[in-house]
Amino acid sequence: MYTLHLTKKASQLPLLTPCFAQAAKSKGAGANSPVSCPNEKVWKQIKEYQTLHHFKASAQETLLINLGPKEHVLLLGLGAKEKYTPEVLRRSLAAALKKTILKELTLDVEALVGSLPVPEAIAALLDACLLTGYQFNRYKKSATTAAQATETKNIYLDGPAALIEKIKKSYPAKLEVAKAIFLARDFINETPQTLHPEHYAQLIEQDAKKHLPKVKVTVLKKAQIQREQMHLLLAVNAASHYEPRFVHLHYRPTKKSPQSKHLVLVGKGITFDTGGYSLKPSASMVGMKGDMGGSATVYAAFRAAVLSQSPHEITCLLPMTDNTVGPKGIFPDAIVKSRAGITVEILNTDAEGRLILADALDYACDLKPDLIIDAATLTGACIVSLGKEVCALMGNHQGVIEIIKEEAKNNDEYLWQMPMIDEYRDDIKSKTADIKNIGSPMRAGTAIGGVFLEKFIKDQIPWIHLDIAGVSDDQTHLPYCPSHGASGIMVRTIYSMLMRANYQSLSNA
Ligand code: BES
Ligand code: ZN
Ligand code: ZN
């Protein structure tokens, strides 16, 4: 864990000093050196330092310099000045914090902000400090755990008072988002035997009751799920040793404004995905404890938005079950009537996420919200088309799709919109039921998932679908995420959607 102190510490703590890489031919002050440094005072002191010759100040490069008995400077490369962006700041600072052996250090915040727009730079700086120190070590032997517990770092800030003041203002909301992301990572990383649907629902209920007093928590158990006619959720749950759960959280803002909307989040909560009778091969099954990533992601965004007093009414719906094999499991070829009344031919029991989401989306529409956002680790095809780096985006309302693209860009999270065309819609027509749960093999798998879900959106309620199959874990390229395991990517974007004041385009639809 890293602790960010929003103060300057008087003692001589090592100073983290950002540096830019100089273009080879550039003339002027730093022409002889491949490095330029906005902090001239420090720079003068260290310029002759020998090792500096090997330091190119490329993004994420660090160099610890010992200037005297108790005097250190940690140089941090930020790459070329012309290419400096908030994301370069976020990644470079995170990489430095992760790598350094220093337990205490002070950030030269003015130099870090450089010529970037101040609000975005502050957001990136806080993200780097607050998101990077995550560890999941509850299953490590105690000795190791103790060693890792010492992996705490204290970060202090040095810079102009006005800038520190601005950082202080942004800090509380950023801290709530970071805490929520850590919680989502804990849920996703938890082992599947522990985090089964009954226990998962209980954990969310306890967390909401403890931290979100304004939120009404309802957990539907099997009998109520049956009463709700959620036969698709029940079908996926049929072979399970555990009951399904359907968590319904509702937040009403204290002060509603004329711009306030009712936003509904839906998250896939498959606590483990074996594939069911359409069994996954062993290698593909590993990692499927994370198939509840959508539910953890939307719950985290919900939690942080509630604690940041969002002006919007927000509902969070989390259908939960595992997808396993057993004598009671549904067979491929089964036809099941959804809550919406649409019959679904289940030709592949491994396409189960869309089944539980279908019932949840239908339930969501009954609440007559202004916007529904779902998040799900829905398709392996998403990783094939967009890699681990990019989240797939679909929806039925281009105006709101543009809004989430904008929010993702503000947060430096990658989204890419997939097409939704009638040919794809035709591909899920069934000969014996209304629709089938898969399209043609190896064809547009992610978008097929999208058009399937679209069928369950009633009354043209604006809806966004995020396929987070790739981004939900193993973000080796992002130093502010653990290189292995849950990432919490998309929490910040969804949170921004929940906090956004202006939804004018929704009213003009
Ligand atoms: N949970 C998987 C999708 C997934 C795969 C997420 C890899 C993360 C990493 C989903 O339930 C699934 O199995 N989808 C099938 C759909 C297919 C049968 C149409 C898939 O992607 O193979
Ligand atoms: Zn599956
Ligand atoms: Zn799945």
Mean pLDDT across the residues is 94
The coarse overall form would be elongated
Provide the list of bound ligands, each named once.
ligand BES, zinc ion
Question: Structural class from helices and strands?
Answer: alpha/beta
Any low-confidence stretches, pLDDT <50, length ≥5?
Answer: none
How much of the sequence lies in strands comes to 15-25%
What is the tally of beta strands? 19
Quickly count the helices.
18
Distance between the termini: 45 Å
- Specify Rg, calculated over alpha carbons: 25 Å
Tell me the major beta sheet: 9 strands, mixed
Helical proportion, percent range: 25-40%
Walk me through what this model shows.
This protein is an alpha/beta fold and 509 residues long. The protein contains 18 helices and 19 strands. It has helices spanning 40-46, 86-99, 109-113, 118-131, 142-149, 161-189, 197-211, 222-227, 231-237, 282-285, 293-307, 353-366, 380-386, 398-410, 422-427, 445-454, 491-499, 504-507; strands spanning 2-4, 15-21, 35-36, 62-68, 71-80, 104-108, 153-158, 215-220, 245-251, 262-267, 269-273, 313-323, 334-337, 343-346, 371-376, 391-395, 415-417, 435-436, 463-467. Strands 8, 9, 10, 11, 12, 15, 16, 17 and 19 form a nine-stranded mixed β-sheet that branches. Strand 16 (391-395), helix 14 (398-410) and strand 17 form a beta-alpha-beta unit. Helix 2 (86-99) packs parallel to helix 4 (118-131), helix 4 crosses helix 6 and helix 9 runs antiparallel to helix 12 (353-366). The radius of gyration is 25 Å and the shape is elongated. The model has no long low-confidence stretch (mean pLDDT 94). The protein binds ligand BES and zinc ion (2 copies). Residues 273, 291, 348, 350-353, 377-381, 438, 445, 469 line the site of ligand BES.
